[in-house]
Amino acid sequence: MKTDYAMDEMQKKTGSILGLSDITENKLLWRQLVAELLGTFILVAIGCAACIAIVESNAPKTTSIALAFGLLVGSIVQVIGHVSGGHINPAVTAGLFVSGDIKLLKAVLYIIVQNLGAVAGAAFIRLAIPDARVENAGLGLTLPGPGVSDPQALLIEALITFLLVLVVQGVCDARRSDLKGSAPLAIGLSITACHAAVIPFTGSSMNPARSFGPALVMGDWTSHWVYWAGPIIGGVVAGFLYRFIFRISKDGESGSYDF
Fold it and tell me: Where are the transmembrane segments (predicted)?
């Protein structure tokens, strides 16, 4: 009897982590996957176009790209957030997995379609923009800046993605009663700030899919591992931190508003 009970408990825990019901019972899953694919497609397509266009303009490069990506992500999350959560980023999905907000199988599917969307977005812009301009700007490839080593770039990418995922966790926490304003705007502003700070050092990816799409289309894998390892590490650390330290344990419970 004890063995049977232990087996039942193990199966329950395994099912809870894997999230089989998300695959077998969730009739909206296909819509969520389409939303993530489309959102990442738009992010990479327009984001890469912004990186290409800025090369030939007189606008400040770092500021313009930072604003483009921040406003773009905020807009996309506003549109698809109610469908899929608006992750559009494997590092965000990884962070939400370790915090318990998404199950493993669904997270894996999200990451797959995010990368498919990123490749499609990069390929679309590669076809839509003249070859000379694409080659000159590198299709928005993310690379360590001059004098920046791969380990240094990894630390920077981990830090900025840590901030992004922490902001996502905080503004999307349904247990908080103190939240005001726009969650998509807060997420977009965090991306703008991080891009403005570190574009010269790493290109400010914060998103493995955003780096994967252009790298695959252009066939350039220089330092590409950095743009997976750094953001995933930062996202996972943020997910653990929010789950075990910052998350409100009960509805309405907050130590910051007792004065």
Answer: 33-55, 67-86, 107-129, 153-172, 184-205, 225-246
